Amino acid sequence: MNHIVGVADMKVSCDPADTIVTHALGSCLGIAVHDPVAKVGGLLHVMLPLSTTDKQKAEKNPLMFVDTGVPELFRQTYAKGAVKGRIVVKVAGGANIGRAENDRFQIGKRNHVILKKILWRNGVIIDGEDTGGDSARTMRLNIGTGCVELSVNGNTNKL
Q1: Cα separation of 93 and 157, whole Å?
Q2: Domain residue spans of the chain
Q3: Which tens digit of pLDDT belongs to each residue from 125-145?
Q4: CATH number of this structure's domain 2-158
Q5: Is 28 a catalytic residue?
Q6: Which residue out of 8, 20, 25, 28 is catalytically annotated?
């Protein structure tokens, strides 16, 4: 079954028949995690780097922010049987879409930097990524195989 992840949303599954998909990753990040032994995986679509920029929004929806969404993604995969040492992490997005050359806010880059800091502090490495640039991406995670596919400008590739 296909599960669609919206913006500031997440899905976690332990059903090997499931595929989790998120569309329109621009400056947002798609973060896929998968434990190949437990066959547990999840996909998070975050918008902004830090919840401190809007604490009320973060309380209503922690999945909107990298610093609050990523820990929740890991907690939910652990609750379904994933083990930290086996988790494979793949990341896509963080683009600069339709913005001027001198984008002052650099949301995509900041999302990526905050993610890398959080993962590094917790001893987790990124196993594959396709970030930056100026193209939107669609990301798919197959729970049974752990395969992550990206569709960019009509082309689909494995990450």
Answers
A1: 14
A2: 2-158
A3: 999 999 999 999 999 999 999
A4: 3.30.1330.200
A5: yes
A6: 28
